[in-house]
Design brief:
The structure is a single chain. The protein is an alpha/beta fold and about 500 residues long. Helices cover about 35% and strands about 20% of the residues. It has 16 helices and 21 strands. The chain has a seven-stranded mixed beta sheet with strand order 15-16-14-13-19-20-21. A six-stranded mixed beta sheet has the order 3-2-1-5-12-11, with helices on both faces. Helix 9 crosses helix 14, helix 10 runs antiparallel to helix 12 and helix 12 packs across helix 13. It is globular, with a radius of gyration of 22 Å.
Length: about 500
């Protein structure tokens, strides 16, 4: 009998395969980074072939490390960077262009064009999303309009579109030899092409964007047996979970009740609130999206606040300015000073996401004096994440009418105590970190396990959640208000920089 469950977590900067036991403990893990490609300012790409190679490598490495066989796994779930767009030839398996990453801003002119015809929110009632460079739909349109022969091939039925989950499931289940072309409701909701009520592709938006429907995958639930892997180390194992990374983290944090919230600190920052079976339109700059859909049960919806640049700002400090050697150096450097020295860093590298949705914003460092040193810059970099999260919390409380009692956190940055304490201070709320911090992988493992009976139900999953650490606010109101005032002031300096 299978005693483990697998999770393939394909993220913005790396791919990992994690094997969990029934308690949610990690048994084996392998991870590899892939190249970030920046052809032009504002353009961000990945090589889909490299991502597939990394996927093969980490699955093999994790399975071999503990001598595991396919029969040891009850099922596998897949979670992925959302909105990152791949178009490939169904006959050859080759992508017609690099994957266009969620952060990419090249479709800004299209956003302007469609906004001029009907406003930024013209599709929000159907999709829950404003017009933005963020989502997949206009990225597909860009590829069809700019890659020679792509449109005619798409119309002939030779090209497939998918976010990364779709691309990987297709390859894992056979690729050109009968691979499954599917996605789940959470990933489909990030294309700006799916109707939130019907959970189907919207013909009117497809017509507006000039995207052939034949390119698009079948929309499935987030937890069901889709098919079986043909790839040797996991050959015959059921693929039975599919969730976009932020939805998977919500699942992993067992936020199954309306009003429960998690925040993931990764390349970007993403706060998601479960709103139950109710679609809650946002009036405060948030996204209305899917939480998950388990089998034939009704879909569960969410409000989301998306912040583009958080952990990526630490990487920028490391790779572009060489102020630190490795990402973990940021905390000791920031601790060399007592405060930010009056410096505020607004990382609008690819515009501003929630709650502003300004594609023309660009990054700003404000408040610099001769007094400022690299310690102050490092501290401002960390504080930028916490300030952006505060803005999303404010919007979420306004939209939902629910005051958050605490914030459940996960992601790579939650090991940074300085950041987490400042987050608690600027929110004036408890910030809580769970024992298992790989909540994205864990969440999709849960979804996959539910589909095959490895886990009984969501009530069983709730009993597995445990707290590791909590941070309590310790900042005076006057200081908190002053810091937030100057942050807001700095944000306004980023507006409309790109013309």
């Amino acid at each position: 009998m299978a005693t483990y469950i697998g999770a393939l977590d394909q993220g913005t900067t790396s791919t990992r395969f994690v094997v969990f036991d029934h308690t949610g403990r990690i048994v084996s893990i392998a991870q590899k980074e892939h190249e970030q490609i920046f052809p032009k300012p504002g353009w961000v790409e990945h090589d889909p072939a490299e991502i597939w190679r990394r996927t093969e490598e980490v699955i093999t490495e994790a399975m071999v490390a503990k001598g595991q066989r396919p029969s040891d796994l009850a099922a596998i779930g897949i979670t992925n960077q959302r909105e990152t767009t791949v178009v490939w030839n169904r006959k050859t398996g080759q992508a017609v262009y690099n994957a266009i990453v969620w952060q990419d801003t090249r479709v800004g002119d299209m956003v302007t064009e469609f906004t001029a015809k009907g406003g930024q929110d013209r599709y929000r009632a159907k999709t829950g999303l404003p017009l933005s460079t963020y989502f997949s739909g206009l990225k597909i349109r860009w590829i069809l309009n700019n890659v020679k022969g792509a449109r005619s091939a798409a119309e002939a039925g030779d090209l497939f579109f998918g976010n990364i989950d779709t691309f990987l499931i297709w390859n894992l289940t056979g690729g050109v030899n009968g691979g499954l072309h599917i996605t789940d409701v959470t990933n489909a909701s990030r294309t700006q092409l799916m109707d939130l009520v019907t959970l189907q592709w919207d013909d009117q938006i497809l017509s507006d964007f000039d995207i052939p429907k034949v390119m698009l995958p079948k929309i499935c639930s987030s937890s069901e047996v889709y098919g079986r892997a043909v790839f040797d180390p996991i050959k015959g194992v059921a693929i039975s979970g599919d969730l976009g990374d932020q939805h998977a983290a919500l699942f992993g944090q067992v936020c199954f009740k309306p009003g429960e919230v998690k925040n993931t600190y990764g390349t970007g920052c993403f706060m998601v609130m479960n709103t139950g079976e109710k679609i809650v339109p946002s009036k405060s700059g948030l996204l209305t999206t899917l939480s998950y859909k388990i089998g034939n049960a009704p879909a569960v919806y969410a409000l989301e606040g998306s912040v583009a640049i958080t952990g990526a700002l630490v990487q920028w400090l490391r790779d572009n300015l060489n102020i630190i050697e490795k990402s973990t150096d940021i905390e000791p450097l920031a601790r060399t000073v007592n405060d930010n020295g009056g410096v505020y860093f607004v990382p609008a590298f690819s515009g501003l996401y929630a709650p502003y949705w300004k594609d023309s914003a660009r990054g700003v460092i404000a408040g610099i004096t001769r007094f400022v040193n690299k310690g102050h810059i490092a501290r401002a970099v960390l504080e930028a994440t916490a300030f952006q999260v505060r803005e999303v919390v404010d919007a979420m409380e306004t939209d939902s009418g629910i005051e958050l009692a605490n914030l459940r956190t996960d992601g790579g940055m939650v090991s940074n105590h300085l950041l987490m304490q400042f987050q608690s201070n600027i929110l004036n709320k408890l910030v809580i970190r769970p024992v298992v911090q790989e909540t994205t992988a864990l969440g999709v493992a849960y979804a996959a396990g539910l589909a095959v009976g490895f886990f009984k139900d969501t009530n069983e999953l709730v009993t597995k959640w445990a707290e590791d650490h909590r941070w309590k606010p310790s900042m005076e109101k006057e200081k908190r208000d002053s810091l937030y005032h100057f942050w807001k002031k700095a944000v306004t300096r980023t507006f409309d920089w790109a013309e």
